[in-house]
Amino acid sequence: MTQAAASIPAPIPVRIPIRQIVPWAVLVGLLALIALYFVSTEQGAASVIANHYVHEFVHDGRHLLAFPCH
């Protein structure tokens, strides 16, 4: 039995390349914040885009995330 236990190799730890992940994490975070802005506050006085096209496009998502819009 000792030979069977000795023949199992030890697991090699996986190295996570943090320097390669950080730029993508920052990009995804910025895109998420932009999406949250458009879903939550893009209407009325705080509007970046003049028409109500963005408001109508994200209207159902706004209600789904419990943001008031009326």
Automatic annotation (TrEMBL):
InterPro entries linked: CbtB_put (IPR012667)
Domain of life of the source: Bacteria
Transmembrane segments: 21-39
Swiss-Prot/TrEMBL keywords: Membrane, Transmembrane, Transmembrane helix
Keyword Transmembrane among record annotations: yes
Pfam families registered for this protein in UniProt: CbtB
Name of the protein: Probable cobalt transporter subunit (CbtB)
Organism per entry: Amycolatopsis sacchari
Source organism phylogeny: Bacteria, Bacillati, Actinomycetota, Actinomycetes, Pseudonocardiales
